[in-house]
Fold:
Amino acid sequence: MKSELNLDKMPAHVAIIMDGNGRWASTKGKNRLFGHKNGVQAVRAVVEESVRLGIKHLTLYAFSSENWQRPKEEIGTLMRLLVQSLRSEFEKLLNNNIKLQAVGEIDELPQSVQDELFHVINKTANNSNMTLTLALSYGARQEITSAVKKLGELVKNNLISPDDIDDSTINKHLCTHKLPDVDLLIRTSGEQRVSNFLLWQIAYAELYFTNVFWPDFREQNLQAALLEYQKRERRFGKTSAQINA
Ligand code: FPP
Structure:
């Protein structure tokens, strides 16, 4: 019997490392840019399906701090695709009551991307069905380093004592502070690593790896990941007996 998704047991926060655009394109004899363009279709499908299934937070790794090392032409294409997608999907975000957010070193992005991004962020700020967060020019080590620096300043200026620092103080200084911890982290394309994505926030996330290249990822692939997630026992350091009591 085919198992069904339990809509009452959906993860609150799903994060995705969208990987394999380049390899998908090369299997078709095309260049990497073709792969990124087709990756946008997968983004659209996953966002729509996540809203439909009642997922409250979806975070997509769209451009890492390390991606700045890619060829200029590829960076240019990715930035143009972002601007185009923000424009073309804006109405859909509004109609589906989706709030857009961005995390990362946003001021490093070209002005055209920042302008479009802030336009959509402002216009969708009061939406409440789902929060879609784009990680852009994002690196988790950079995020944690920046939080440590801010806390160091607070200690230096006697505004807090080192004893005041706990999980929640650190969390408050991360750029993701408005988001809950990640419940499910998905990575496509067969790679099994986390590549500097949400290192603090995935402490207790369930990890799901699939061989599907990102441009081929669709509703049924998301559902497969969610089914697998619902089969896992999340113990958070406790015993199975404690969890089931
Ligand atoms: C990884 O594939 C993908 C990226 C670095 C960019 C992801 C961007 C998109 C899907 C398009 C635009 C995004 C939005 C949110 C509209 P890769 O290039 O590393 O593939 P490879 O590992 O096969 O080379």
Summary: Residues 12-139+182-229 form a domain with the Undecaprenyl pyrophosphate synthetase fold (CATH 3.40.1180.10).
